[in-house]
Amino acid sequence: MTHHTSTSGVIYWFRNDLRLHDNPALQQAIALAQQRHTWLLPVYVHDTALQLTSPWGFVRTSAHRLAWTAMAVQDVSEQIAALGSQLLQVTGEPHEVLAELMTRLNASTLVCESIAAPFEEAHLQALQQRGLDVHTVWQSTLMAPQQLPFEPHDVPNEFSSFRRAVERHTFAPAKPVATVTHMPALPDRVALDAALEVASATGQHTTDHSAYAPLNDPRSAFPWSQPAFHGGERAALAHLAQYCSRGLPHTYKATRNGLYGADYSTKWSPWLATGALSARQAWAAIHAFEAQHGASDSTYWIGFELLWRDHFRWLHLKHGQRMYGPSGLSSAPLPPPSHNPRGFERWRTAQTGHALIDAGMRELNATGYSSNRLRQNLASFLIHDLRCDWRAGAAWFEAQLIDFDVYNNQGNWLYLSGRGTDPRGSRRFNPDKQAHDYDADGTYRELWR
Ligand SMILES: Cc1cc2nc3c(=O)[nH]c(=O)nc-3n(C[C@H](O)[C@H](O)[C@H](O)COP(=O)(O)OP(=O)(O)OC[C@H]3O[C@@H](n4cnc5c(N)ncnc54)[C@H](O)[C@@H]3O)c2cc1C
């Protein structure tokens, strides 16, 4: 491990970008440390607020999600150690811990990716209010802001208009940046020891992974206790390679509405959520697949879905906090009553009495994953049949999903509530018809009975 005697170094804060490939923010932090001939300390903060109780009465983050994230952190930590550096893991409130670290180490700059969602932005505001120099990098969309055919804040509200504008403009995602193969030196030993004291003062600086053992449910559509689905960045890249080498991009469109099994959809989302996989890297792999095996409706459709992901990100930049209020982006009054706590409890505990919905909730609660088709049904049932506040459902998904992504979760719930940017307004799914169309022989309901 190499150390640097300079006192005024750079801290890199890993957020939802737990990877070394295609990580422009990390590359910028490295370049900054090199230009200034100083050290770089990579940090991950295990946010204690994630273990608080949500306003809806349950813990904000399930054991599944903690376990899944811990694997991504562990992978980055091992890879950074192999490059002669060290990932400092700290537990606490990010802005408190990072401010303390910056002071103790006399760090000049903190670099991290930007996340345009209220809870995440509050951390940065708190750091900036303390007068700290924080440099953020927007990096989680396929296209960089300057590649869009409009200002990011003027993104069309409707997905179809957004997609058409982007496609007319010859849609070309930014190229993934090179994988990090070199890390600058760490702060000198004395300073690092002081930083480690911060870590231990806040409770712990390494995560006890045994506390987060993933549940081994072989029925899961994302069987993440199996070696192929287990791990962070390296597992993600191996998964991406095998997804392409088995020719699955050519069958995606026909199978994407599946409910069970590992191959009906890409299964990228849990890795995209922690940032163990970059969307641009995933898209580049599909592009390479097309160059070798030809483009098809199916390969196009994978890009189409990734554009949904981008759209929800740009909508957050445009509308901010409004996406989080009870009325969402709609000016229509809320129909009374605005919530049904009993109905919510029945839904949450898989006791609605509807076989498809209850099976879906059992899978979600037992594994932290659910197919897109079921998510739509679960959300629709909660909002339109049980007449619950969509934000309670979004909070339950946030707690359970190992692929929880603030933009995608909020965007999809808002869309289904009819309070987002969907021109068709409310999206109610008829659960009986859905069971008939997508689980005609009852295999899925039987699997999760
Ligand atoms: C109520 C509700 C909540 C959701 N919450 C989340 C969430 O927290 N995190 C999350 O990543 N996705 C969420 N989704 C979107 C979608 O269900 C998942 O992205 C998808 O099921 C993940 O599996 P996959 O990677 O195999 O997807 P695939 O079908 O293989 O799609 C490939 C990728 O495209 C993107 N994508 C696909 N569908 C959507 C969509 N509807 N919206 C945005 N991006 C999409 C995802 O990044 C996905 O990994 C939600 C959907 C609904 C209806």
What is the element layout, followed by pairings?
Blueprint: E1 3-4, E2 10-14, H1 24-35, E3 40-47, H2 63-82, E4 88-92, H3 94-105, E5 109-113, H4 118-129, E6 134-137, H5 159-168, E7 186-187, H6 189-201, H7 233-245, H8 252-255, H9 269-274, H10 279-293, H11 297-319, H12 341-348, H13 355-367, H14 372-385, H15 390-400, H16 406-417, H17 431-438, H18 443-447
Parallel strand pairs: 1-7, 2-3, 2-5, 3-4, 5-6
Helix pairs in contact: 3-4, 3-6, 7-10, 10-11, 11-16, 13-14, 14-16, 15-16
Bound molecules: flavin-adenine dinucleotide.
Flavin-adenine dinucleotide is lined by residues 256, 265-269, 272-273, 302, 305-306, 308-309, 312, 371-372, 375-376, 379, 397, 401, 403-405, 408-409, 412-413, 416.
Describe what this molecule looks like in 3D.
The chain has 18 helices and 7 strands. The model has no long low-confidence stretch (mean pLDDT 93). It has 3 domains: 1-139, Rossmann fold; 142-174 and 233-320, Serine Threonine Protein Phosphatase 5, Tetratricopeptide repeat (Alpha Horseshoe), CATH 1.25.40; 325-447, Orthogonal Bundle (DNA Cyclobutane Dipyrimidine Photolyase, subunit A, domain 3). The longest helix is centred in the C-terminal third of the chain and has 23 residues, at 297-319. The protein is an alpha/beta fold. A 5-stranded parallel beta sheet has the order 4-3-2-5-6, with helices on both faces. Helix 15 (390-400) packs antiparallel against helix 16 (406-417). Flavin-adenine dinucleotide binds at residues 256, 265-269, 272-273, 302, 305-306, 308-309, 312, 371-372, 375-376, 379, 397, 401, 403-405, 408-409, 412-413, 416.
